[in-house]
Amino acid sequence: MNASTRSYGRRLSVTAGIVTLGLLGLVGGATVANADDEPPYGNIDQQAKGSIIVHKHLNGDGTNGKPDGSGNEGAQTVDGVTFAAYPITSLDLAKPADWETLSRLSVPDDACADPANPTLAGQTLGGSAGEATTAGGGIATIANLPVKAYLVCETAAPANIVQKAKPFVVTIPYPNTAPGEAGNWLYAVNVYPKNEEVSIDKSIDPQAQHGYGLGSVVTFPVTTTVPTLDATSYFKYYQIKDVMDARFTNVGVTEVTLGGNQLTSGVEYNVNVTGNTVAVNFTRAGLTALKNAPGSVVKVTFQGTVSAIGDGNIRNKAQLITDTEYAVTPPPDEPETPPVPPNPPETPEVVTHWGDVKVLKVDANKTDKGLQGATFEVYEAQDPYAADCSSAQRTGAAIQVGGQTTFTSDSNGVVSIAGLFVSDSKNAPIDATQRCYVLVETGAPAGFVLPANVETPLTVKTGTTDISVAYDARITNSKQRVPGLPLTGAAGQVLMVVCGSALLLIAGGTALAARSRRRSVAVQ
User: Fold this and answer.
1) pLDDT by residue (tens digit) across 240-286?
2) Average pLDDT of the chain, as a whole number
3) Cα–Cα distance for residue pair 475/300, rounded to 1 Å
4) Which residues of 198-286 form beta strands (DSSP E)?
5) SS (H, E, C) 442-501
6) Which residues make Cβ contacts (< 8 Å) with residue 57, sequence separation at least 6?
7) 0.85 surpassed by pTM
8) Calpha distance 281→268 (Å, rounded)
């Protein structure tokens, strides 16, 4: 197991387990036998082979096992943790004096700091005599071990398992002191090292806080619980990272809290944004604050502005990357840059759902003719998740979408509203497929009048509208009425005939009067 493999294990250390402590306590009772005395541990079969059986559990799960495999085992087992056994070649278990040396042996917490090359002060270690990884309920067996004392190191673990087990020493065979078994040797030795586990969760704030249209901000609270560290364990790094969807712009972090108390950017943590990846890295001061607040909740609120809806489903996960180290005093340096592990702890996926609107504005007398220039606003519905949106009534102020609240029909009569919120995977109704809105016509095209009812209920569904099938709504306008024009039809002809007859009568009367005057003159 190399150092790079170790770096991927996000682990925290705890006590080596009851067998570790028991071993040193039991061996501490050994005495040097006189040459003529029988060895106090009976007859060890120096040619025998034994095994170390690891039972891996989480802290606080109630495990109270014994070296012979008896005792209570808790329910919280851990698979995927690798252990290796390194023979202490400077000790010979055939020599009582070496048992005495073993009884005084102190195993430092950092003996396995480099699990590929562990160290033990005053002793010589050989290469790994075998390793095994827990599986099938947290059990791993390092078998076929010759009679020897072994330093056991945890060399790798899943990324959600933190505070690696402290190194411990096991002998093959192991002196069994169970009642009625004293003097017997155990060649199959059961050990019970424990770990802490970390987890991370992600939620979505209700969208009402930020608006329902494209261009609105979405905020994602991400939480972790600080694990408990030993006095000599310290965080090497603690990073909470969110690789945000490409449809988000202006990505960042709004706040970081520990146990409900606000932390300060640049003091306890730094925010690094690379493309759409946003990472919160705790400083040394922040790591110290974490160590001093076991069991407290860390909350990081990520945010992004929705710039496009695509298929309407915007998905995200967050990650936690952490590891610990052993030291007598707190490390003075700033934490190292976290590696990129293959499988860091991740939150369950969260999703926000969005849809668009496409409405066709047409002439009431010619419904295949789109009308340009009609203006609209869109509003939230009073009952946004009604089973039927056809009776939706508007509420609140006009919704801003893409930086505007007014939407105008184009040369084809199409009114396009680029994106409206539908639902999300965290707030009720979870993952709803549609949401009600109300479209309000505020201005008719030139030469047309507003309809009697300017409100049009909308059913907005996740994804984009397929106008080859249907528009979200079709809205008509009638032409304006104008003042009466000069009349040129039948009524006008009658009027002209009447006027013409009158003129003829007048002309006739004038002619008769003239003739009468001429006759009168002639008689005279």
Assistant:
1) 999 999 999 999 999 999 999 999 999 999 999 999 999 999 999 99
2) 84
3) 46
4) 200-202, 217-225, 233-243, 248-258, 261-262, 269-274, 277-282
5) EECCCCEECCCCCEEEEEEECECCCCCCCCCEEEEEEECCCCCCCCCCHHHHHHHHHHHH
6) 63, 73, 74, 76, 77, 78, 138, 192, 194, 195
7) no
8) 9
